[in-house]
Amino acid sequence: xxxxxxxLCELKNQGRRLVGCFPLYPPLExxxxxxxxxxxxxxxxxxxxxLTKSDRHLQNYTCHVARCLTEFVLGxxxxxxxxxxxxxxxxxxxxxxxxxxxxxxxxxxxLLPMFRLHVPAVAKERTGxxxxxxxRITSMVCDLEEFTxxxxxxxxxxxxxxxxxxxxxxxxxxxxxxxxxxxxFPTFVRILQLAHFxxxxxxxxxxxxxxxxxxxxxxxxxxxxxVMVSGILPPPRQLIETMEASGLRVVANDIxxxxxxxxxxxxxxxxxxxxxxxxxxxxxxxxxxxxxxxRRIETIRRAVHDSSAEGLIFFGEKFCEYExxxxxxLGGMLRAQGTQTLFLExxxxxxxxxxxxxxxxxxxxEMLKGQAGS
Amino acid sequence: xxxxxxxxxFRKSPSGKRLSSLMVQDYMALHQKASEGAxxxxxxxxxxxxxFAGFANVVYxxxxxxxxxxxxxxxxxxxCEKAERMGYSSDLCSxxxxxxxxxFDNGKDxxxxxxxxxxxLVSNTxxxxxxxxxxDIYHRVWGVPxxxxxxPFSYESQKPRDFxxxxxxFADLIATIEEMSGQRFEIEKVREAASLSCDALREWKRFIxxxxxxxxxxxxxxxxxxxxxxxxxxxxxxLAEHYRMLADETEEQVKSGIFPVPAERYRLLWDNxxxxxxxxxxxxxxxxxxxxxxxxxYTYCIGSKEGEYALHEFDGGDPFTWLARLQNFSVCPxxxxxxxxxxxxxxxxxxIDGVVFASxxxxxxxxxxxxxxxxxxxxxxxxxxxxxxxDHADERKYSEEAAFTRLEALLEMIDAGRAGSIAPA
Lengths: 374, 425
Known about the structure:
The complex is a heterodimer of chains A (about 375) and B (about 425).
Chain A: H1 3-13, E1 17-22, H2 28-33, E2 36-40, H3 64-74, E3 83-87, H4 91-107, E4 114-117, H5 129-148, H6 154-180, H7 185-194, H8 200-210, E5 226-231, H9 237-245, E6 249-255, H10 256-262, H11 272-281, H12 293-307, E7 311-317, H13 321-336, E8 340-346, H14 355-373
Parallel strand pairs in A: 1-2, 1-3, 3-4, 5-6, 5-7, 7-8
Helix pairs in contact in A: 3-4, 5-11, 6-7, 6-8, 9-14
Chain B: H1 14-35, E1 39-43, E2 58-61, H2 63-72, H3 76-85, H4 94-103, E3 120-124, H5 130-142, E4 146-149, H6 160-181, H7 187-209, H8 220-226, H9 228-232, H10 237-255, E5 266-271, H11 279-288, E6 291-296, H12 297-300, H13 319-325, H14 336-350, E7 354-360, H15 364-367, H16 370-381, E8 385-390, H17 400-422
Parallel strand pairs in B: 1-2, 1-3, 3-4, 5-6, 5-7, 7-8
Helix pairs in contact in B: 1-10, 2-4, 3-4, 6-13, 7-10, 7-13, 14-16
């Protein structure tokens, strides 16, 4: 049994009601305020050893994220989940609710209630956007009241907001430490990934324990080239090891399941509609939030500048078209300002399948070092 | 269009010739008006172009339609390669790659010299959200403003709140064009355009309805080719007139006993975008096998509400109501149950023997429900199905032999089913 599935089993044994959410930015506070435990079904490749069930429903040109998600839910996870939540992100994911339902029927499994949300894909300044999103959130609150049998409580909602605020602030703190080199980057990645599967209270405890009072490690050797990393998912452990062994230090990240997930804290309010208008319409820019595209360019440019990154490594998830449409322009923009870029395409490879990206990363590191020395 | 050739295949009919002339005129007029100072908009295909009729001097280009034309004329892969050399992955939609390749090479190798440079980009999220990313590239590189119509996906029939949200966005779009172009909007002209579009769609439905005859009066390939002006001439009298003549002429041919596949033994349905680079080859080779793909979800959905087949009529009232209600029609913006409803209806009306699910690497949003959809059709309706791999516009990703091996297997399954159904117990 994988680590995530084991975690879900344990949570279930504690009597928790689990809501499997996708993609990365679900309304966690709202679900939590109804006494539910949201788990974000993202980055499940380590849990999935084969794609047999998924392959009955999804063609092989579907991204690995969606295939693993489907396999995970149709495998053992569906028995642990009480409901699913999804919002519109990419075209693949918007097709998944009915595909998963078909899969569950085929498995003879209990069908899971599905909460759906449409997050506007246009700028917040446009007419009717806020009203529409608020209306959707109000409907969701009603659905959750019916599902849980308890009324919405503004006080509980504010308490949930507070917990997630603390979590995000601690995540920012550990990220700072990782960028300085005083928390190892692999540790940072592991801890932040757990944010998606652990109850927020448990994750806060973990963060408290892991953030050093005083820096555990000496800071980065500044002679090593600093890089920013970007992608839908963090690179596999083996590539992180290669990055470190090659003498690259990660000084900033734009990984969707790390920085982009935790990079924005909306102002507290007891009105869920207001809160999620702020959350989604001012969210940390992401390729999957279409209205944030213009801000994203500037955010990346600024992050590279502020962190003094000499290079940016894109970890491309094969078939993630949102990301792939952006890479050429982003890469060109960065190169024009003197930042080197490396694009690596990944699709759940392990072992020898990672040899090629490893080699390219080593070559990239050599190039950056050579550039620094010249 | 139907052909008089006894063996089937393509021969340009009067409607075919008129279509060519219509398309040439559309593209020439677009370039001409743009050069004379018209306000140029690039749109995604489902953007309700009738709205632009409300302005005195707004013209629109349709990159997807242009890309389909490039693929049909044999230059799709060439344009794709140009985009790939700029760093765009070959896994991206081939329409997008063709368009990027063409646009950034200033229209070179395009049968229409590309499209005139836009003043405004209007994408939407209903057919596929990727259009937003695709148009964003021009927004960044050229600095052209980009307006997105956000159309919520329909798992069930379009919800009133989604409808209201769409109508609000139409108003924003109009205000944007007024401000940018300095032109005044007149709703009466849009009402007239909507009325003409509805007339055209009524004729369109009459035309594709001829697939119900035995043998079928048309092939799906006819509908693929003939849908082109629906994308470039919406809301015009000449479109309505063209479709009226198309339907009249096809009915006449049926009455005269002229059919595209006279020896039709297998009546098939196609699910996905047309394989633009294969229209002639595929239809001819199928015809030789006595098979006719008589209808396609890609074209029977036009003019209907999501999950339906019948025309959604314009009542002559508020054109925005009609346009907004049709925003989920085009298969991709609605879910599996709705897709299945429409397909079941069409299978029944047209007496379909088998369904070809074209799994299209370039259109994941259309394709990713097909494996389940195929099981539904096979198990619930008892109709044999096959899945073939295609790419709608990049010929390099298509293998004719692999596709036909499967298509022939489908015909064998149909035969086996027929033999079984008449075999003595």
